[in-house]
Write a structure and sequence with these properties.
Length: 387
């Protein structure tokens, strides 16, 4: 790093990825471990040592640099679990030495201090992770656990829609559930849809009679507004959509198609016009919304139609290090592999499982906007509407 780059970083002040410390403040291995774990669990960042809280360069002595380097090395090895490898660099600014400690985003999340506490960045500070859902999401980002495999408390095989599951099973395996001679509970365990007597989330969402009885937040809130303001109180249509994933899909497509315009575009007066948004794009985006959301977040999906745009909003940003640019170029990561594997079988959802859904949606609607909103922890697909 050049001195001019460091000066520019200092001028911007502390934020989620930049922190200032004076040399005499860097003495506590426990506190330092929390700072480094928080950076590794978040998007990475830098600790600028030799800078006071106001952003003034106070510098470090050579003895302080030796001491701090040793402390950083020991802390990263002995006090962060799993261990990390921060980089240090000494930069001279106006004749004063500043140590830049770079902690990269970790690839083995979650990271904890040596007391087993998980930390993440919160603005310029760090905070302790206390909620079970957030810890689960951290394990999910490391592919150590998937939300769709987690058992749902209070469920049993009695919550399965037998007609729905039976039709799926016969179409896929060529025989009825009864013809297998295997009890339903054991069959669900064999297929990975249950653990012992409890359904997992995949089993509940794919074949449950009333999934929202156990997971009431997993509904789709759909509203067609008058105007373009999400805070507006005038709307043309609204619906809370529940049911299993195939029902959520069908009802969402129905809501969209009945609230979108049909355009003649030169067709005869007595000919039904084409939907203003190609159905192929709607189908791909709704499937993507259902399959790839973060199910560790207890929040509904939202469909919002405005006069100038359509927004399909899913809880959870893009997983791991995937960016919007990545998915626009065909890169995909399956967040819920069990649900996705069943969606490719039978007729549950029109899902191919080869990672090309967004590409097909973009081909149908080149103006499609995709946003991974880290502040609100949402993924948004935004379709402009024709005036």
């Amino acid at each position: 790093m050049e001195a001019i780059e460091l000066i520019e970083l200092i001028a911007r002040g502390e934020n989620t990825r930049i922190q200032f410390k004076k040399g005499q403040d860097v003495t506590n291995a426990k506190s330092l471990a929390g700072e480094m774990a928080a950076f590794a669990n978040s998007k990475g960042g830098r600790i600028l040592i030799g800078i006071d809280d106001e952003g003034s360069v106070v510098g470090l002595t050579h003895n302080e640099i030796r001491r701090i380097n040793q402390l950083i090395s020991n802390t990263a090895t002995d006090c962060v679990r799993p261990s990390i490898n921060p980089e240090t660099e000494n930069i001279s600014v106006g004749g004063k030495l500043v140590m830049v400690v770079t902690v990269h985003e970790g690839i083995s999340k979650p990271y904890a201090d040596n007391e087993g506490v998980f930390w993440v960045k919160s603005g310029a500070d760090k905070r302790r992770v206390t909620s079970r859902e957030e810890v689960q999401r951290m394990f999910q980002s490391a592919n150590l656990v998937h939300a769709d495999e987690v058992p749902v408390d209070g469920t049993t095989s009695g919550d399965i829609d037998l007609e729905h599951f039976g039709t799926f099973f016969k179409n896929l395996y060529g025989k009825s559930v009864g013809e297998t001679g295997i009890p339903l509970g054991q069959l669900l365990n064999n297929l990975g849809l249950a653990r012992d007597i409890q359904l997992n989330l995949a089993g509940l969402l794919l074949f449950g009679r009333n999934p929202q009885r156990h997971r009431p937040a997993f509904v789709i809130k759909a509203v067609s507004f008058v105007g373009n303001d999400p805070a507006g109180d005038k709307y043309r249509d609204s619906q809370d959509i529940g049911g299993c994933l195939s029902e959520l899909y069908k009802e969402t497509i129905s809501f969209l198609t009945r609230n979108l315009r049909r355009l003649q575009d030169g067709k005869g007066f007595n000919t039904e016009g084409d939907l203003e948004v190609p159905p192929a794009a709607l189908e791909e985006l709704v499937v993507n919304m259902l399959l790839h959301r973060d199910y560790f977040i207890s929040a509904p999906w939202r469909i919002m139609l405005f006069d100038n745009r359509i927004e399909l909003i899913s809880p959870g940003t893009l997983p791991n290090n995937i960016t919007v640019e990545n998915i626009r170029n065909g890169v995909s990561v399956i967040r819920n592999p069990l649900i996705a594997s069943f969606a490719t079988k039978g007729n549950e959802l029109p899902y191919r499982g080869i990672g090309t859904g967004i590409l097909r949606a973009l081909a149908a609607v080149p103006a499609l906007e995709l946003e991974s909103d880290h502040e609100r922890n949402l993924f948004i697909a935004r379709i402009p509407r024709r005036e």
